[in-house]
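Intended use. Records such as the Methylglutaconyl-CoA hydratase entry shown here are meant for training and evaluating sequence-to-structure methods. They are not intended to support clinical decisions.
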Amino acid sequence: MLLTGPGWLTAVNVPVMDELVHLAVADGIATITLDSPNNRNALSAQLRRELRDHLNAAIADDAVRVIVLAHTGTVFCAGMDLKESRSADAEKQGVNEFPAILEQIWTSPKPVVAKLAGPARAGGVGIVAACDIAVAADTATFAFSEVRIGVVPAVISVTVLPRLNSRQAHELFLTGETFDARRAAEIGLLNSAVSADELDAEVKRYADMLALGAPNALAATKQMLTSQRPPNMGEAFAQMLELSAKHFAGEEGQEGMRAFAEKRKPAWVPDVLK
C-alpha cells in the first residue's frame, strides 16, 4: 500500500536513532509531525511505533486540547512500507499493527485534525478518515491504490466507509483511481480543501474552534457520534437524555452556563483564545 509510479516504491533506510515522528505542544495544540520524507512518510515499523507513542503522550497530556497530524516533505503518507512487507508472512505483516493506530485516532477523547500539504494513499487515507477534521491543500491527491498492487483496502475500510456513500466507495476502492482534494471534500473524506498558502490558517481556524469546547463534553460528543444507537426511538431518546442531563448538571455544564451569563469565556478555554 504505497504510492505508485516512478520513484514511489523506493524505500530509504533511516537509522533508528533518527526520530521519524515528532511531537510539539504549544497553546493547547499538540502537533504530531510525520518526518520520513525520503520514504514518503510510509508506515514503517519505526514510524508506526513512534506515531503510537506520540499519540499516547498527547492524549495523556492535560495541557493538550487538540491534536494536529501534520507532515514534512511533499507527501502526507504513502501507506504501508512495501519494502518491509515483501517476503513477510501474513502474521508478520506490519499492517497487523495498523488497526490499533486507526482506533487510537478514532477514539481519542481529544479532537484530531489531519493537515495535508500533499498526497495520501492507501493507509494514509485511512489515517485521514480516522481524524475528526481533515484539511488539505487543493493540490493534494488521494487514491485507494491497494487493488492495483494485488492487496485489499480491508483495514482502512473501517474508518473510510463511514465517511463515503456506497457508490463512491465502490468506485474508488475498485478502480484505484487518483482523485483530487476538491472531490475528496465533496465526498466527505475532507472537511476543507484550500490553496497551499491558506492551509496553515485553515487548520488553525479549526483547532481554535475545537479548543473552545469543554474537554469532557468534546470527548463525550465524539463517543456519541461513533456509537451505535438503539434501534428503538424511545430507547435512543432515553439514552441521549441521560447523557444530556449528566452534562447539564456536570461541572463543565455549570461553568459554561455561568460564563455565558457573565459574558466571559469558560475556564477551560486556553488563555491565548480569551
